[in-house]
Amino acid sequence: MIDAFADAVPAGGAARVLDAGCGTGRMSRYLADRGCRVQGVDLSPGMITMARRANPDLAFAVGSLTDLPYPDHRFDGVLLWYSIIHTPPAGQPRIFAEAARVLRPGGHLLVGFQSGEGIRDVSGAYRRFGHEIQLERHCYRADQVAAQLAAVGLREVRRMVRPARDSERDEHASLLAEAR
């Protein structure tokens, strides 16, 4: 789905793509290597520091998915790759509204997430490395996310849902949508 997204935005290095919730910049790097001009944004200053260190040729900024620090219609593509999962259902409409706001007409959005229902406490995965944090992951069904995308004027063009593998507990889903 990442490749389908990269193929959907203009080729030849002209595509401006926002990696919203970029973390350490892993997907930003992948998209840049595919010819996209990538801007990453993440709420965590620590993640942005790591992204800048690993990818000094890319631009990264600290910012919130619910209040993106960019003008309207700035990007040809917006990637929300597993970045909606830490926001409760009540916050989802604002995330998708902001993504749609910064996406140009005809641009594409790709969202990836664990699919299912409920909340998972994922703190234990970090505690074993000595990090005392509280961290929850919210699961959403693909149809729920598709409805949120439609509500902000995005049209779903492709969907993938795959079953859980190995030690995974939940399915994984991704939806590719186009701005009208």
From TrEMBL:
Entry keywords, A to Z: Methyltransferase, Transferase
Transferase recorded as keyword: yes
GO terms assigned for molecular function: methyltransferase activity
Top-level division of the source organism's lineage: Bacteria
Domain Methyltransferase, first and last residues per copy: 17-107
Keyword Nucleus (UniProt): no
GO biological process: methylation
InterPro entries: Methyltransf_25, Methyltransf_Superfamily, SAM-dependent_MTases_sf
Protein name: Class I SAM-dependent methyltransferase
